[in-house]
Amino acid sequence: MIKISAAIMHHPRRAGRIPDLVRACAPLNPTVVADPEPDGRPSPLRTAKRAWAAIDPGATHHLVLQDDVRTVPGFAVQLHAAIERRPSHGVSLFCLWHTPHNSYLVRRAAVAGAAYAPLSPREWTPTQGFVLPVAHARALAEYLAGIPDEVQDDDEMIVIFCRERGIPVVATVPHLMDSGLEKSLVAGHINGLRAVVHTPGRPWSAEGASATLELPPGSYAVELHDSVCSIRPMHGDPVEHQFPWYWYDACPLTGLEPEAVLEAGAAHLSGLPTRFLPTMTEVWAAGYLLGADAGRFVADSAGPLTSAALRSWIDQGLSAADRRLGDPMRNDCVGLAWTAVRAGLRAERCDDAS
Amino acid sequence: MRPDLTTVVGGMAQREALAALLTPPLVETGAAGPRVRVDLVACPTCGAPADDRPWTPPFGGTFEHGPLPVLSMLACETVTARSVLPIVVAAERFPELRTARFQTRALTWLEVAHLHLDKALEAIDAAERWVTDPAETDGRTLPASTRRHTAAVAWPSYRRDLVPSFLSPHASVPDEAEGHYAAELRAAILTNRPRQD
């Protein structure tokens, strides 16, 4: 029997958002936990300490939400179902579309048709909406209480907490919320970021095999940034750095031959106007590598959320110059990425890289 | 391929793999990280002029402020962000390298191409030893493959230019040397990559 308590981390500057957000959580009745020092240096950690301690009596799980999110219709029902099938896990309800490892792991799960994506034990935990079993939630509140507010980022601490205690963390696919597009109150945080897979018209579902599919953690992430496809090894490198490995050169890590990637794309790329070739080749490579990675776990058809995962990938991954080309370019990139994913699902890989 | 060439080519591939597997410095998203200023050199082979390009981190152009390591490269070539990792790591560890000048293999190749191939490759190999021995003074050549930097071209040329050369966009080494290098590089990446933290 799952019984969920909930708390909303709240800053008074966003007071206007609270009534709608509380209503959107019904029949859950979240406790609104205000920043105790609203005029102090912004620190999500300061409020998170209190929100994780605000557990209702008798609850089996505790949800903490940030006050700048937009939940999907039918949020509480989907949340209950998602927790019910991973009752011992940490469950994130959202992931930003650009993060170095987790965003890729969510896209890989979407292509594989999985309802959950395993999240990185080293990248910050997406805490826009995060659920823990209450025993872990209480321990987390105690853990956070010992950390100075100046550390600021609760997500950086929560990933350490979960890793040290061996708590597996997954993200729902699709997400149960999106960014509310509010301006961040925290210095250094980037505005305008969105979810990896947000499909409010298509609820999270445990139908079929999607919820039983257990994807292993990855050993690399494929990145599309500034219209360049790169690979980020998950072991050895820090999560955040500026030295991604160009996809062609890093192909040994994927078990693929770079020339096979290009050969598979030749029919789709050779007829394009030359000015589009650099970007479209990178989009092809990204989609193919993603499809080939997901293809380790599923048969040769892509999951129903692949399109949403690819749209968000293209939207965050094109250069400013490519974005200025507008919807035709965006749509062409999404279409090509789709074709590449399908081709990648059928790719032949060497076993020495997995 | 002659055994002596096989050995030196394999050693260079091994060096490039280990350089690419160095641990990058942590740079939080949106923060400024270490930079390498690029100094483009007009190409005496194809005539490419040393016009500046737009650069993205970790590269910086000639107007990048502050004391930085400098990488000279041909105007007709490009190297990847990952490939300058040994410069950045060395500059962090050894203060005397923080404003040092480095150059690509393609530039070093221009200096030694008049030699027999074995001697030319040995000279480049020696010029890369700073990666493991910073006191080495035979040169500071970047142990990295290179690609042609071109304007928009049709697919056949574009695809061909994605294939790196271990020496230079203009090198004319035997195909088997390029093939051996690629195979050794792949093997060294797979052998030496971290499998866990």
The gist of it:
The complex is a heterodimer of chains A (354) and B (197). With 354 residues, chain A is α/β, with parallel strands linked by helices.
Question: Which descriptors would you attach to this protein?
Answer:
heterodimer, A: about 350 residues, alpha/beta, seven-stranded mixed beta sheet, three-stranded antiparallel beta sheet, globular, B: about 200 residues, two-stranded antiparallel ribbon, 6 strands
Task: Give the helix/strand layout.
The complex is a heterodimer of chains A (354) and B (197).
Chain A: E1 4-10, H1 18-24, E2 31-34, H2 44-53, E3 61-66, E4 69-71, H3 75-84, E5 90-92, H4 102-112, E6 116-118, E7 129-133, H5 134-145, H6 154-165, E8 169-172, E9 177-179, E10 220-225, E11 228-233, E12 245-246, H7 247-250, H8 258-269, H9 277-294, H10 306-317, H11 320-323, H12 326-345
Parallel strand pairs in A: 1-2, 1-3, 5-8
Antiparallel strand pairs in A: 3-7, 4-9, 5-7, 6-8, 10-11, 11-12
Helix pairs in contact in A: 2-5, 4-9, 4-10, 8-9, 8-12, 9-12, 10-12
Chain B: H1 3-20, E1 36-41, E2 59-60, E3 70-74, E4 77-78, H2 85-93, E5 101-103, H3 105-112, H4 117-127, E6 147-148, H5 155-162, H6 175-192
Parallel strand pairs in B: 1-2, 1-3, 3-5
Antiparallel strand pairs in B: 4-6
Helix pairs in contact in B: 1-4, 1-6, 3-4
Biggest β-sheet: strands ordered side by side in the sheet of chain B: 2-1-3-5
Q: What is the chain-wise order of helices and strands of chain A?
A: EHEHEEHEHEEHHEEEEEHHHHHH
Percent helix among the residues of chain B?
A: 25-40%
Count of DSSP helices of chain B? 6
Physical arrangement of strands within the biggest beta sheet of chain A: 2-1-3-7-5-8-6
Which structural class should the secondary elements of chain A be placed in? alpha/beta
Mean pLDDT of chain A: 93
Radius of gyration of chain A: 20 Å
